[in-house]
Each structure stands twice: as structure tokens, then as C-alpha cells.
């Protein structure tokens, strides 16, 4: 069997996908680049050659996650530019728990100056994207973002999303969302 040789860009994509999984499971501090390399099927030095440092890889991963969230919103708004449509798009993102958990890990690692700056910047961009796409007021957007963060935390706890753990309080909390 002949193995197809991938370009550096294609390998970089594989490493980013592996990083989403690894950082989603263990967070920034708890993830080692050799674990990401193993998941991607490459060597740890190759990961460093592609991304420089673990922090640069985490930042690239955080950027990718935020890009995917914003793209989901843009796609939804192309069909119907309102908060309900964007909410439906976000509900689909709940099926991709690892994306949302990486976002939370970015917030949690914000004491690291570069990560904090990136987390604040990208969250602000998501906020502005929601406002720009829908024309929602600051108050409406705040409620939308707050609900999204609640759902993100609940996805991290695995009480929403694929195969949710049954919790009475979660059912009660989600009843009127």
C-alpha cells in the first residue's frame, strides 16, 4: 500500500484537529505536545516545527475554534439574520463539545498574557459578529451571549449535547431557553 505524502499545510490541519481534541480533554496546562503529535500521527518535533511552541499551537487552536463558531453564525445569518437562527446554529455546535470546551480552556488560561489577549479579542469579535449579523441591541446580544456561555458550560459538564447525562436541574434550567 502506498502512503500519500501530505503537505505541511495538510499536516498542520491534522495537528490542529488533534489539538482541538487534546486541549479539549486536558486544557492548556494539562496537554503535552507529544500527546497532540501522537493523535496527529506525527513526531513531537514536527509539531514544534509547524507551530513553534505549545502556546502558539494553543493560540492557533483557539483561533480555529472561534473561526468555526463565527462561520456557523455567518452561515445561519445568510439564510435568516436573526438571533433565533444564530441560536439554532449554536445548538448544532453543542454536538461538537470539544470546540466549546477549548473555548472555555482559553478563558481559564487567560492569566497567560498572550492567551488572555487572544481570548478577550476573539470573544469580542464573536459578540460584534452577532450584533453585526442580526442588528440586535447590546442588551439582546448580551442575553444571547450569556445563554451561549451557559450552554457552553453545560456542554462541558456533558448535560447538553450528544449523550447528555440526565440532571433534573439541567432539565429545569433549559425548559424556557
From TrEMBL:
<keyword id="KW-0238">DNA-binding</keyword>
<dbReference type="GO" id="GO:0000976">
    <property type="term" value="F:transcription cis-regulatory region binding"/>
</dbReference>
<dbReference type="InterPro" id="IPR009057">
    <property type="entry name" value="Homeodomain-like_sf"/>
</dbReference>
<protein>
    <submittedName>
        <fullName>AcrR family transcriptional regulator</fullName>
    </submittedName>
</protein>
<dbReference type="InterPro" id="IPR050109">
    <property type="entry name" value="HTH-type_TetR-like_transc_reg"/>
</dbReference>
<dbReference type="GO" id="GO:0003700">
    <property type="term" value="F:DNA-binding transcription factor activity"/>
</dbReference>
<dbReference type="InterPro" id="IPR001647">
    <property type="entry name" value="HTH_TetR"/>
</dbReference>
<dbReference type="Pfam" id="PF00440">
    <property type="entry name" value="TetR_N"/>
</dbReference>
<feature type="DNA-binding region" description="H-T-H motif">
    <location>
        <begin position="32"/>
        <end position="51"/>
    </location>
</feature>
<feature type="domain" description="HTH tetR-type">
    <location>
        <begin position="9"/>
        <end position="69"/>
    </location>
</feature>
